[in-house]
Amino acid sequence: MLAIGIVVDDAIVVVENVERNIEEGLSPLAAAHQAMREVSGPIIAIALVLCAVFVPMAFLSGVDRPVL
């Protein structure tokens, strides 16, 4: 479920950025390229941080293990 949330959140960020670029006068294709240049770094960083936080939880055992 977490992966679905990450994908949806990242898609929303990209779409909002594309819409902003279109409002600034770029063509849809140019707006998409510009949006990805602007947000690809932060999106990758967010995904890496979330993986660093949640992957270790998969290896927990016992009563303290959260339900993933």
TrEMBL record:
InterPro entries per UniProt: Acrflvin-R (IPR001036)
Keyword vocabulary terms for this entry: Membrane, Transmembrane, Transmembrane helix
Gene3D superfamilies, per the entry: Multidrug efflux transporter AcrB transmembrane domain (1.20.1640.10)
GO cellular component: plasma membrane
Molecular function terms, GO-annotated: xenobiotic transmembrane transporter activity
Membrane-crossing segments per the record: 43-63
SUPFAM superfamilies, sorted: Multidrug efflux transporter AcrB transmembrane domain
Keyword Plastid: no
Protein name (Swiss-Prot/TrEMBL): Efflux pump membrane transporter BepE
Biological classification of the source: Bacteria, Pseudomonadati, Pseudomonadota, Gammaproteobacteria, Enterobacterales
Chain's gene name: bepE_1
